[in-house]
Amino acid sequence: MQKPPQSLDFALKETSPNIGAGSVTGDKLSCTYDLVEQMQYLYVRVVKAKDLPGKDVTGSCDPYVEVKLGNYKGVTKHFEKKSNPEWNQVFAFSKDRIQASILEAVVKDKDFVHDDFMGKVIFELNDIPKRIPPDSPLAPQWYRLDDRKGVRMKGELMLAVWMGTQADEAFPDAWHSDAASVGPESVNKIRSKVYLSPKLWYVRVNVIEAQDLLPSDKSRYPEVFVKVVYANQALRTRISQSKSINPMWNEDLMFVAAEPFEEPLVLTVEDKVGSGKDEVLGKCVIALQNVQRRLDHKPVNTRWFNLEKHLIVDGEQKKEIKFASRIHLRVCLDGGYHVLDESTHYSSDLRPTAKQLWKPSIGIFELGIISAVGLMPMKAKDSRGTTDAYCVAKYGQKWVRTRTIVDSFTPKWNEQYTWEVFDPCTVISIGVFDNGHIHGGDKGGKDSRIGKVRIRLSTLEADRVYTHSYPLLVLNPSGVKKMGEIQLAVRFTCSSLVNMLHMYSHPLLPKMHYIHPLSVIQLDSLRHQAMQIVAMRLNRAEPPLRKEVVEYMLDVDSHMWSMRRSKANFFRIMGVLSGVIAVGKWLDQICHWKNPLTTILIHVLFIILVLYPELILPTIFLYLFLIGIWNFRWRPRHPPHMDTKLSHADAAHPDERDEEFDTFPTSRPSDIVRMRYDRLRSIAGRVQTVVGDMATQGERFQSLLSWRDPRATTLFVTFCLIAAIVLYVTPFQVVALLSGIYVLRHPRFRHKLPSAPLNFFRRLPARSDSML
């Protein structure tokens, strides 16, 4: 089924940015930083000063340096009462915005009323040297301070000044002139950073048995279960079937933990003494640092742990010294699994936790985040709309965050990043966000989402540079909205074609997922816990990668019910089945002789295949080969992107969108919830009918030989006996030939009524009669 084209505004556009890839420039930069446009910067590194004169009555000074270039001014931090201060701060001025010919570095003394001038150093821009990595950094030099008239003063300032590009090592930590409106306390929140997800482990707690428990009420049979708590995860076993003081469970409980392990595993053995009332019989605490790590499915050694009894005496919790109760456990860190921390459909990493099981990389993926255009205003500042945009890209354990471009609807980042690739069937996610924390918005502020792009590496040709402008689409309660476009350059370089092709024969996940599989419910719960841990840890980094950013990148809410998504998935299934339906319609036309010439040719082909059955499989595979070669001409020439038609984002009813953005549990009024519940019931009723019909057909097959309808089973077994005899004495080719000619018979030999076998099947009984 050919899908309708997208609106041109929402489509992918090929671009031709001025990047080094594919061009011969003779510049060293084009070899290492060639997926982005070169941006020239004037760098000033203010290192330290010495022998500064005292300015106040005590003979000391509070120095700082002001770096001035035209209208732009960068200021270092100031030191109190220090004549030999060290700053080691870097300032970067964009060459595109330079309108002056002189650079000034002015040393001043911080004062309450008026900052005193202590001297300055002046540079002519024409004399500033150019530096291109991988040249070594320019060595700073001492410069004597001059007064305003150019006369030598006491004191010296150590500086390094050079022209460079964004490939310079000083670039990520520099103060940028295009962020001049950002205060010193917020500069750290706009810098580019690389983050690493914490190393995640599955913790398997196999609760085997307990011994010598001491319930307070010895006159009743104890109903004992074990509760295990790790961080904010809590699981419990079922109540033991052996209702005694030596209960048994042999039950596995799974948790997610991240290195470094900050909290212990806490087990409590509890007795259900009444409705909603549990008595703690004992407790033990296990530090995960001491737990055995396993790489395969071989069981680890079991251990007995003593259970401590905690008593409450006069409102205080006291530990009882004497204990005889103990619990038998098998606890391990499962390194053979891949801990799923993102939506399965968009996984960027499939390697197991244990590094010993990692296979060598098959290539590298390079991403050039060039620019964005047409961004929408995300917040108001000084009575006008503004956007402070930055990008986040996530692949595997590595997250990258570009610098924030302040107050621009057409930001230019021109930052390039590289990842190692271990599996081509993975997805990189790139999100664009508005920084809501650089103008004193720390308290309760959030970074708003502008849009997201996903690129599946397996859809990229090796060693080819793709430069496209991707639409940034966001679905709001008001409908699908284009928030702008992001221009990216991507390249997947394969180090070994043989290894990469060999990967296609490997299982997608590590072998532990198949040898010792986890249930779907377990995986969903563990994935949710893993996402929360990753979001919490990255939110604690400096600068933090905000929780709302991480959750959006990991598609935390992808499992939530959405009428729009359900419709889209239904039409995706119909699109997959459309090929089968088309073949069925074509066969029906052949059988009904709509085109006599085609039907005769099919007769001839059928007779040849019956007479020479060894040609059947070669013919099928040759046909598939020819279809593949034919489709090569129309192969996709660009990576896939967000499709509003496929997602049914542009056709969703307003109430369906409102339902999709509702909180969980719902926050809508009861009449709206009732209407949605009734709608869901009607849809579920149709699904229930379809499932019932499928069950009925299956039960009719079972009733052929079950003697539920004795006459029908008699007819069927008699037919089976006759068919066995006929097929035994008749060559198979004759049977196949007669069957095919019967199916392809001319319409004048057909009846409009259903065939006898179909009538017989529909009359068979099903268990639907026994349904209440």
TrEMBL record:
Species per Swiss-Prot/TrEMBL record: Rubus argutus
Keywords, comma-separated and alphabetical: Calcium, Membrane, Repeat, Transmembrane, Transmembrane helix
Topological relation to the membrane, as annotated: Multi-pass membrane protein
Family: Belongs to the MCTP family.
Protein name from the UniProt record: C2 domain-containing protein
Residue stretches making up the C2 domain: 23-143, 181-305, 346-470
An annotated GO cellular component: membrane
Compartments reported by the entry: Membrane
Residue ranges of the TM segments: 599-632, 715-744
Annotated InterPro entries: C2_dom (IPR000008), C2_domain_sf (IPR035892), C2B_MCTP_PRT_plant (IPR047257), C2C_MCTP_PRT_plant (IPR047258), C2D_MCTP_PRT_plant (IPR047255), MCTP_C (IPR013583), QUIRKY-like (IPR047259)
Coiled-coil blocks: none
Upper taxonomic lineage: Eukaryota, Viridiplantae, Streptophyta, Embryophyta, Tracheophyta
Superkingdom to which the source organism belongs: Eukaryota
SMART domains given in the database record: C2
